[in-house]
Amino acid sequence: MKYCSNCGTLVELRIPEGDTLPRHVCSACNIIHYQNPKIVVGSIPEWEDRILLCRRAIEPRQGLWTLPGGFMENAETLIQGAERETLEEANARVEMGDLYSIYNLPHINQVHVLFRARMLDLDFKPGIESLDVKLFHETEIPWDMLAFRVISEPLRRYFEERRKGRLGFHMGTIEALQK
Which residues are within 8 A (CB) of 136 and not within 5 positions of it... i.e. 6 or more apart? Predict the structure, then answer.
């Protein structure tokens, strides 16, 4: 951040009085510009024993498969965001179920929240951000073509737990890959 969004003056990076972390602070109006992690919400849409995946039409990871999800918007709840993203990316109507996982991605300042979801019908098709949308049995999942670890890790756990007959809640952290 270089300029204050309130008055346009240059900001400086410093620790404000009473704070413990460096923040962008306007040198003129003294507004503190907090930068916080983005929340990504999504669903694991299920129809019988199959999971709905979307093939990405946009970067990052264009052409690879993912669960429907995206950035939460202002003035919506986690569930509303997950429903909206599922509709936008797969044109799929779902009934949201239990919270399934929360993953921290501190290296990119994101928190990913996934809900279990039951598809209400088979009337789905790719949205503007998807090249294709398809239901997969566990054995058909293109594991080597999944776009993100934050999708593959909970999805592997989901199938493992489903085989055992008990789905739980999970929380974890995905660190940056070492180069």
Answer: 50, 51, 52, 53, 142
How many CA atoms does the CB half-sphere of 114 hold within 13 Å?
26
d(CA 103, CA 173): 5
Q: Rg of the Cα trace of the chain?
A: 19
Report yes or no: 47 and 135 within 8 Å, Cβ to Cβ: yes
Distance of alpha carbon 168 from alpha carbon 99, whole angstroms: 9
Tokens representing 112 are 């990913």
Residue holding tokens 């790719």?
A: 126
**178: buried, middle or exposed (CB in 10 Å: 19+, 13-18, 0-12)?**
exposed
Q: What is the pLDDT of residues 127-158, one digit of tens each?
A: 999 999 999 999 999 999 999 999 999 999 99
Q: How many CB atoms lie within 10 A of CB 74?
A: 4
Peptide bond into 60 cis (omega under 30): yes
